[in-house]
Amino acid sequence: MAMLCAGREQGGMPHELRGLFMVVATMLGVFIAVVQSGAAARADEGHSCDKAPAFTLAAEDAFFPYTGMFEGKLRGFSLDIVSAAFSAVGCTVNFVAMPYARCIREVQAGRQIGCFNTTNSADNQQKFIFHDRPLFRGRIMIYAHPVRTGVFTEEDFETQSFSVVRGYTYTDAFDRNPSIRKIAVESDLQTLAMVARRRADFAVVYEKVAQFQMGWNRARIAPSPVPVHKLVEYDLFVSFSRAAEARSMMLAHALDTGLEKIRDNGTYEKIDAAWNVWLSVGVKADQPPPKWTRLGIGD
Q1: Which of 35, 74, 149, 153 stands the most exposed, by the fewest C-beta atoms within 10 Å?
Q2: Which of 233, 248, 273 finishes a domain?
Q3: Please, which pLDDT band fits residue 126 given cuts at 50, 70 and 90?
Q4: Range of the domain at 216
Q5: What is the DSSP secondary-structure string of 216-236?
Q6: What domain count does the chain have?
Q7: Pairing verdict, β 202-206 and 114-119
Q8: Whether residue 132 is found in the same domain as residue 253
């Protein structure tokens, strides 16, 4: 009994039992931490592709520098954003390039799971499933010959001609107004070239698309038209197919989570900055456009 009492702290338990208790408590703490970590990882997977195989999105081929073919390769700012966002949540995405009209038609028919870049208009929301966070916000500008004087007014819509890309939508008010004289051509290069050559009074073009075209095709678009009026600003998205609703909802949720992550960790800002620098300086220097990879943003 004396030996037993010598093995205790006053009012406590034997040192041997206390040591064993501490070891067990430590192991239990580690176990709980591991379980919580796994639960957090699984919760995050709930926002990801949940170990799904690689999937393919349709990307429009003529909306560069947002997304389009550049010297035989699919490149673009929104392509980089989509790639980085899905990568941030462990999703493997591939891309197939096609004209925009076919792109959205394939998604609506269920032959493609998603297409970008699409507005989330009321009409489109009836046809497709959308994520909440936009890929980017685009501004459609009206461009005029640089020698034009005077301020653009609403009356110009009724009296002047506007070069547009055949099949593109701009705004309901513009598209459906029969009083507006529209000259439909095949590309934004042509819309701007027509204004430069005074074959149309105005061109209606997304701002960064015009910036690229006038920098890259300097000889064909000369003198460079200048912006005189903002027509509208749109948020652009990936449109997912309603024909595979469960999968589309999962991918839309994953994309939202990925977009939040790359905005929080600075990746979005780096991609945006790289493309802005290229459009401002790199295009005229005939440098290759940026390209995002898992290693970062580079040429």
Answers
A1: 149
A2: 233
A3: very high
A4: 139-233
A5: H-TTTS-SPPEEEEEEEEEEE
A6: 2
A7: unpaired
A8: yes
The answer to whether residue 102 is domain-embedded is yes
Q: Determine, yes or no, domain membership for 191.
A: yes
Burial 39-74 (b: 16+ CB within 10 A, else e): eeeeeeeebbbeeeeebebbbbbbbbbbbbbeeeeb
For the chain, first and last CA: distance in Å? 80
Distance CA 260, CA 244 (A): 24
Q: Is residue 37 one of the residues assigned to a domain?
A: no
My answer on whether omega of the bond before 117 falls inside 30° of 0, hence cis, is yes
Sign of CA dihedral 254, 252, 61, 226: negative
Residues 6+ apart with CB under 8 A from 15: 7, 8, 9
Q: How many CB atoms lie within 10 A of CB 210?
A: 25
Element (H, E) at 249: helix 245-264
Examine residue 192 and state whether it is found in any structural domain, yes or no. yes
Say if residue 30's pLDDT is above 70.
Answer: no
Closest CA to 225 of 258, 202, 199: 202
* β-strand partners of 165: 185
Confidence of residue 155 (pLDDT cuts 50, 70, 90): very high
**Is the domain of 278 the same as that of 257?**
yes
In contact, 225 and 188? CB cutoff 8 Å = no
Residue whose entry in the numeric block shows the structure tokens 């408590």? 25
**Beta pairing, strands 128-130 & 136-144:** unpaired
Quick check: bond before 14 cis, omega within 30? no
- As a whole number of angstroms, the longest Cα–Cα distance in the chain is 111
Closest by CA position to 201, among listed 149, 151, 139, 143: 143
Inter-residue contact 136 to 65 (CB < 8 Å): no
Q: What is the pTM assigned to this prediction?
A: 0.80
